[in-house]
Amino acid sequence: MKSAWFILSALVAGMFLGIGVDIAAPGAATASLAFVEPVGLLWLNALKMTIVPLVVALLITGITATADAARAGHLASRAVMTFLAAIILSGLMSLALTPLLLRLFPLSPAAAAALRDGLGGGGETPPSPTFSDFILGLVPTNPIAAAAETAILPLIVFTTVFAFAITRLEPVQRATLSGLFKALGDAMLIVIGWVLALAPLGVFALGYALAVKAGLAAFGGLVHYVLIVSGIGVACIILALLLALFVVRIPLTRFIPAMVPTLAVAISTQSSLASLPAMLKASEDLGVDPKKADVVLPLAVALFRFTSTAMNLAVVIYVATLFGLELTPWEMAAGLAVAVGAALSAVSLPGSISFVTSIAPIATAMGVPVAPLGLLVAVETFPDIFRTVGNVVADVTATRFAAGEDAHPPTGERP
Description:
By secondary structure, this protein is mainly alpha-helical. The chain has helices spanning 2-24, 26-48, 51-71, 74-104, 109-119, 131-136, 143-148, 152-167, 171-197, 199-214, 217-247, 252-269, 276-285, 290-303, 306-322, 329-345, 351-365, 373-376, 381-403. The chain is globular.
């Protein structure tokens, strides 16, 4: 939480300084870009260098962990299937709702042009592939070359096939390979921790450059972005509540009061993991057998990020719209597939930490610029609140559904 606010403060300070220098001495502000902007770009490159190895490691460990969980018994298998169905549903909602919100509440052309120029990363965009090109590009002839060229989608296809092959090995061999990639992922997370320690400096430089290029319009553009992505987060929360009401058949007059302590922890910590004890108590209050909750909820915290698919796709669609990119149906399908994989393999940390490493593969698969993510991470503090609230609501709802019990009053109450 402290690091997220430090990063946000660095962005605001950099933008105010950039605007101030640009007003006082426009020539000096433009000249200073040659010295300040490379600092931010260097930090962004350091963050981007972790994407490919981390995606491979987390996807393999996520798939093997999911497979192991499904083997653990009927309850775990039912829980995993519930998680998969829910994150696919939330992703489909985002693909439909985000473009609609952007049409209903568009960013002004002037602010969009200023923000686009300030964020950079647009450049020359390749033409959209035909359907046959898209299909042929799914299977890499050389996965090493795909990784070197940051061709994320074919790399993910190969990694997914490889991960499922690992699940068919003998237990000793499976544990060896899973442990290897788990260690690789942990090592890359340490590297990311080092890079994020420099985030205030990198974001300050990027914010300064954005303000010099875009001026005051940059603030309006970032506020618009936060509102759109947060709106998708609110939609995820509403969807989770509707699933609790109509699928799990728990009255909201009972569900919401039981969730109040969990929501308080979620908002204050922005961490599903920190909310686990409160979720266990809420599940018990909602009539879930504690023994079953002890199995499903830890699985949910480890594997199930209900809002990630929807909100990560919303970020990519926003950037694509900002840069005037028309996303084809198969590019959206590719983004959904990658987003589902990222949701299953992401670590249970605040979104500001895993923001770039979770969303960059989706953006790359959909042909959307990645560079803007380095700056948008600074304002992730606000949407991340809705991410966490939606996740904990969905975790408890999925636990109640996976437990497969009829709703009944908590122990000690008469029916």
